[in-house]
Design goal:
Elements lengths: L1 H19 L4 E9 L7 H12 L8 E5 L4 E4 L5 E3 L15 E5 L3 E9 L2
Parallel strand pairs: 1-2
Antiparallel strand pairs: 1-6, 3-4, 3-5
Helix pairs in contact: 1-2
This protein binds zinc ion (ZN).
Length: 115
């Protein structure tokens, strides 16, 4: 499952960072998962529950931001809210638009508790 491998890579990154900071507990993690990042949220939450079970992140609070998808037309410069990576410009119907945001998949911040 795609989402489980994403979760495992987040867990891995956070665990390394926790060790680096010599912290005992990760209190919370904040993620940016863009609206068109391709992540299925229901599957993500399910994978998260499974992925953190019996790890140090089991009790970690998870906050997820969903940055909206924004695109900019390469022809007329119109910016608009996109529903996929392949939306055409609503003004001139140019199919080539730059995605400005919405594909994010990153750890925005994490807070740890040191003993
Ligand atoms: Zn346009």
């Amino acid at each position: 499952m795609h989402e489980l491998s994403i979760v495992m890579s987040i867990v891995d990154t956070v665990e390394k960072e926790r060790e680096k900071q010599q912290a005992d507990t990760v209190e919370s993690i904040e993620l940016d998962i863009g609206m068109i990042s391709g992540v299925e949220m229901e599957a993500f939450y399910f994978a998260w529950e499974a992925g953190v079970r019996k790890t140090k992140l089991e009790k970690t609070r998870l906050k997820i931001n969903r940055p909206p998808a924004k695109a900019k037309c390469t022809e007329c410069g119109q910016t608009f809210v996109a529903t996929s990576s392949f939306d055409a410009c609503p003004e001139c119907e140019n199919p080539f638009c730059d995605i400005l945001s919405g594909k994010e998949l990153r750890i925005k911040r994490m807070t740890v508790i040191k003993n």
